[in-house]
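Exercise 7. Predict the joint structure of the components listed below.
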Amino acid sequence: MKTSDQKVVAVIMVGGPTKGTRFRPLSFNTPKPLFPLAGQPMVHHPISACKSIPNLARIFLIGFHEEREFALYVSSISSELNIPVRYLKEDKPHGSAGGLYYFRDIIMEDNPSHIVLLNCDVCCSFPLTEMLDAHRRYGGMGTLLVIKVSAESASEFGELVADPVTKELLHYTEKPETFVSDLINCGVYIFTPEIFHVIQDIRTHREDKANLHTLSSFEALRLTTKTHAKDFVRLDQDILSPLAGKKQLYTYETMDFWEQIKTPAMSLKCSALYLAQFRQKSPGLLAYGDGTKNPTVVDDVYIHPSAKVHPTAKIGPNVSISANVRVAAGVRLMDCIILDDAEIQENAFVKYAIVGWKSSLGKWARVQGEGDYSTKLGITILGEAVTVEDEVVVVNSIVLPNKVLNISVQEEIIL
Amino acid sequence: MKALILVGGFGTRLRPLTLSVPKPLVDFGNKPMILHQIEALKAIGVTEVVLAINYQPEVMLNFLKDFETKLGIKITCSQETEPLGTAGPLALARDKLIDDSGEPFFVLNSDVISEYPLKQMIAFHKSHGGEASIMVTKVDEPSKYGVVVMEESTGQVEKFVEKPKVFVGNKINAGIYLLNPSVLDRIELKPTSIEKETFPKIASEKLLYAMVLPGFWMDIGQPKDYITGLRLYLDSLRRNEPSKLATGSHIVGNVLVHESAKIGEGCLIGPDVAIGPGCVVDSGVRLSRCTVMRGVRIKKHACISNSIIGWHSTVGQWARVENMTILGEDVHVCDEVYSNGGVVLPHKEIKASILKPEIVM
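Solution:
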């Protein structure tokens, strides 16, 4: 088979609003996939990675957010990349494999030889070209991106066992209670169109069985039609687990970084990871300065071209400043994301925090987090349009939109 | 006659309820907060109500269309593009409030619940002949508010003292005003405080009079006061319209149950409970001092006190919910779970007990 004939299609699962409560308060106004990391919407990073795939025909975003939320982004990224990008809205959640199956006709329109499946909330280097080469060598139906993690944290993910020589997936189990392996599923896959037959088999098999899923009562409440259980197919439990050890699925191990972006704190951590990646691969995207005409910059920093930052401010490390932000004289920003239209007044200090859209920090205000990305109040998050008055200190707190803080707070959630 | 209701901003103190609807539409006593005021105004002959808002006008407007037709009263919105304080909105709505009749107009604060003795207020206003009348109410802790110092026999207002450090009086501004159109000439279209700027001026000209509000008064802008307010409201229903309250061997004290709600066997409901439309309360449930909003399902053997259960939520079997637990819209408390003061944002499932007051996002 000539590789030049083989078209590749990418599918990125972007989820939907009911699943987004962990990303509050940032998800109140913006769908999580569009939240900026290192200055670009979260979904932009996997999309950019897809660009490098030879013969990429099309990119699909599948989710159950409202279409209008993605309309603008999708049209602008399509023209920027010169590759059609399309958002496909599920009428209801179908699960990670169910969604793919639901849109199979559209996905197969270009008759692709391979389908790249990615989860939007995964932060990694997306070595897709290398993975595709490996997949072709293995000759299987699917290849999973995997990574070694610490034994303690492995149980939060899908743990798997792979043959060290053939790299075949031998065993897969989702969030096990006991230790199985420190190799985990990254949420990045390459499949041949055979995957649709596999999902189809699962669905048909289900109709024959009496009680398939043990859905929690909550999941059952979420489902609105009776035929639901058949449509809801999860990639991990329903496809990967049963097919492990049958010479159909293989693994490709990455040695680079990998994180899941489930909470606002993780988005700060992942923004820093992507900024570091920019430094390696696209240094032109980052900001530089020495305090003369531009602010002093300590690696790595992204500043949107429309943002105005006073030359006496010192910015970085790991800072991302979005559009129309105004940073006044003498401000110090470290390890933070400053979202669109925010205003930071003279001599204010921000570290380990996310400052929401249109927020305002007063003179000598101090907004700070401890920098623990895994606890609930490990960084400070200010929602949209929050005002922190002059000289007020906010530490390790979450502030919901439209609040005005005129006294200092620590370790609090402010509704 | 016309009226203006100051609806104002984001209602952040009533979160998580106000994350689902704007504050005036949060239900109180089984109907949206603002409906209590609109109905009271309609009852004394007000023909047009203007809502001064600055947040989510589309949601409000949709909702109000329903009321307009059902109640037969005209409802319009006056939208602030920047916050105008407590007097500025009056200037903004000037054209809607003034007509050729020269009649005074009412101004109400949307957070306030009371018996709305508006007819007496009109009589009071006519009798003193001044430019403006305000309702005041007696409170135990006046320093929390703005105190109105007035001459006892005539009600003429001498001055306003904001959060006084020493005792100057125990009557505070109840947020209900009756104003002559001339008051609008005193207010510029900019952020202005009616208590700090407009009223003191009128008082200095001896044209401001205060009437002590008969009956209950509560600012229900935050959950704790909402629950106290419900008690006062149901109390007042008991005195004035007892047929509206529920009766039965399973009812204790003042309880309001919507006609479409279903209550199972062996329950004990009350005192001070409101159960909204479409609610289903299974058997063996104990409810006291709580509000259960539209579409909520309370499963068997559950026990709820001093809490607010938001629209379409469910409370599981044997769950115990108490101590100012506030469940937002569509929150599901699993079977056997205990919530001691949990404040839960919309669309959450509570699988583990909340042992001390905590916000669940």
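Discussion. DSSP finds eleven helices and 31 strands in chain A.
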